[in-house]
Design goal:
Length: 202
């Protein structure tokens, strides 16, 4: 009888624990979903799971959580509703060249306890007149667009490419926004209907 009771208890414990285990796995992009180049980038950036490591390497928080409420398109490219999260920017890396292992921006999501979780990275290039969209990881950048004020200067017109290396994204790994990323309901959350694009041609 005791053995049968113990078996039932273990079965109940397993039934409760397994969904939580698989939920945790589903909350991270699997390595087999990434190309070798993307896997190399994620490996190089894994240390920034600790946001203090990011700060020590020159990434500074813009504090606010960026959220877009409406879907749309940007120069024919889909820009779905969703959040970007909190940006940590390294302005020393901003320039005319791109390095797959050194994004200009790291993306974090704050949980209910206030802890930051690394969700993705953003490669960022300032716009200059006549400039064509850069390409990285075989994907064209979005833009040109204004900076997401007040988290960054509005006149910082740029191209960017978000890559969700850790947080799964139903719209795809290169989507500029992620419906799975949530911003706090209160505090420093900056909400926009859609990205702000300057009236210009490439």
């Amino acid at each position: 009888m005791r053995l049968a009771h113990l078996s039932r208890v273990l079965a109940v414990v397993a039934a409760l624990a397994l969904p939580a285990l698989f939920a945790g796995c589903a909350d991270r992009v699997n390595a087999d979903q990434l190309t070798p180049q993307l896997q190399a980038a994620r490996t190089a950036l894994e240390k920034y799971q600790d946001p203090f490591a990011a700060i020590r390497d020159g990434y500074l928080s813009t504090v606010g959580c960026i959220n877009f409420t409406s879907g749309g398109t940007m120069n024919g490219m889909p820009y779905p509703a969703g959040a970007m999260g909190v940006h940590f920017v390294n302005f020393a890396l901003v320039g005319p060249k791109l390095d797959p292992a050194k994004p200009q921006v790291l993306l974090y999501e704050k949980d209910d306890a206030g802890k930051l979780h690394l969700t993705g990275a953003e490669w960022f290039m300032p716009y200059s007149k006549g400039m064509q969209p850069p390409v990285l990881f075989g994907h064209k950048f979005y833009g040109p667009m204004y900076g997401h004020y007040p988290a960054m200067p509005k006149n910082l017109i740029h191209y960017d490419l978000h890559v969700w290396l850790w947080k799964p994204n139903p719209a795809g790994i290169f989507s500029p926004t992620n419906a799975n990323v949530k911003c706090p309901a209160t505090g420093y959350t900056f909400t926009y209907a859609h990205p702000d694009m300057p009236a210009m041609t490439h």
